[in-house]
Amino acid sequence: MSDDSTRDIIISRLEQLTGQLSAFRTEVTESLTALNERLTALKAKQYDTRPIWQAIEARLERLEEKFDRLSDKFDVVTGHLVSVQADSYRSSGVSMISKATERNDH
């Protein structure tokens, strides 16, 4: 497989992961907003909210674990992309430094 097609596949996957992270962030935000609305209603009724907060804390811990796993996967994919780019530059005889200098000059 050529370096260009490998890079395209990795870039495509990174774009997919970025979309998934965005959707995940939206879902978390909506969930937290809904929880906040429910808690506000409970506070108005003077209910004991301790069990609710315990459930929220447990849910937040699970979300943090999921986010950490996604972040780790994203780091691995990013590392692979950098490696592919470095290999591509090496095989083309262009150093990464000269390539970076070209980008900065334009």
Task: Report on this structure.
This protein is mostly helical. 91% of the residues lie in helices and 0% in strands. It has helices at 3-45, 50-92, 96-105. It is elongated. 0% of the residues are buried. The mean pLDDT is 83.
Short description:
This protein has 106 residues and is an all-alpha fold. Helix content is 91%, strand content 0%.
Class based on secondary structure composition and strand pairing: mainly alpha
Portion of residues within helices? over 70%
Number of domains: 1
Number of strands: 0
Query: Could you describe the largest sheet, including whether it forms a barrel?
Result: none
Output the helix-strand order: HHH
- Fraction of residues in β-strands: under 5%
Please state the average pLDDT score.
83
End-to-end Cα distance, whole Å, is 31 Å
Shape: elongated
Key attributes of the depicted protein:
106 residues, mainly alpha, 3 helices
Explain the layout of strands and helices.
Blueprint: H1 3-45, H2 50-92, H3 96-105
Helix pairs in contact: 1-2
